[in-house]
Structure of Succinyldiaminopimelate aminotransferase:
Amino acid sequence: MNPRLEQLHPYPFQKLRELFVGVTPNPDLAPINLSIGEPRHPTPQFIKDALVAGLGGLSNYPITQGSDALRGSISAWAERRYGVKLDPATEVLPVNGSREALFAFAQASVDSSRHGRRVIISPNPFYQIYEGAALLAGARPFFLNTLPENGFSMDWSRVPEDLWEQVNLVYVCSPGNPTGKVMSLADWKALFDLSDQHGFVIAADECYSEIYFEEGKPPLGALTAAQQLGRGFRNLIVFNSLSKRSNVPGLRSGMVAGDAALMKAFLLYRTYHGSAMSPVVQAASQAAWNDEAHVIENRRQYAEKFAAVMPLLKDVLSFDAPDAAFYLWARVPGGDDAAFARGLYEKEHVTVLPGSFLARDAAGVNPGKGFVRIALVDSLPACVEAARRMVGFVGRAT
């Protein structure tokens, strides 16, 4: 087997299962799981109907590039959302969820030859696919801590100057997982300038971009920033997904857009990778990208949950309201995130994810230590009940 597999770390939820071994949660309380970022709002009926209507596509092999109609719908959505015109023939690809594409892009882009660029920069804490993609591509991850003292931004000055010429790819996540941080235009300019100077590719993970709290004020995206700065999409690839936007995590449908030259090479890789999207999924995806009403309702529900939960938790956990996404990144009393999560599960039957499970030790610290990630994905009553149980748990522990 590939020896690089031995470099992979256990996934955070495997660590969570191991943390709970031997723990019997309070049997008098119904379980509430806020550990995983899995949307639980109902899938819109019109998407289910489009899926069923597209079943005739089961008799056809899909093409890797996807249908003209689907790429057209993604391009039209990007113009509405980001104010950019993408060529659906050369700058857009449908993918089987952003996770699949974020991993595959590193395999296609890293030059693992002796003299190749073999460093991939990732935020820390991070989505673990970035790390696994780097390791299995034969690259070396470099973790850039996002800390409260710098507003959870990626501080590029902390990258050693002599490392930049070895950097192949930089993963960024905006809105961020787990912090909810959104990159500003100044943040994007700094990163674009570094890319132009050193020649690395930017992989912008924007799968949380449609979960925000003030209608009409969406988070700034990489494509919009690139256009506003007048640089075009050079060395920029953006990843997005229907999972969070449209409550269809099981559909496994997303999109990649950006630099046409990079997209051409990525399409070649995907042709051999065998990752074409089923025509049935394409039909449902096209319907989802074409509609915004269900996304507005989705945002309304998340905003309602944050408005209800944050006042309850503000006196027992330390956190800032996120810019976007559906996570609270909260500092726990006592600083032991794993012990907090274990105790909360045992006493209150509420599951949250220890922040240290989402990060690596870098520059002498684990930037997730002392935090928990709370995913407000369940119903409003469940999220409120979970918050009340957390208040009781902290009150009894102090």
About this structure: The chain has two domains: 3-42+294-397, 59-291.
